[in-house]
Amino acid sequence: MLISEFARAAGLRRGLLTPFAGNKGGSNPYQVFTNEHVQMARTIRMAQSLGFSLREIAALNAEHQAKRITPSRGAEILSAQLVRLEEKAAHVNAMIRYIRAKLAWLDAGSKGPEPNFTDYESRVRAAGWKPVARKRKTTGKAPAIARRSSRAGAPKALAK
What pLDDT is attached to residue 136? Predict the structure, then answer.
């Protein structure tokens, strides 16, 4: 499969996959993608849509390849991700409430006090959401959600 066919089939441009080098193309050989590469790419896209970073996906795949993702480890990973997504959803819902209030205020001719986003965000914080400042890790360690591994690839365990 050519890279253009692969990209169309997988919906992914570049990432954690290592294609085979073909025998066509002279000094710049074609990259050969298989149906397994397409499935891996789709799994990566699914994991990204669940909010996992490429670094986390690579670490999870290494854990999976080493047969260290037990049902309890899978539940631990998904539970942690669920907490992250719920926190993000709370923040997004606060933004939606603010925008609706701002639109209603504008539609009413800007009468009354103007909605302030911090009022909406403070409700989310009162409910337990705290913004997390994420720094780029330069230590080379895998992310906390998948500390035990570091090899690149796709997490097949997440595709189930």
Answer: 44
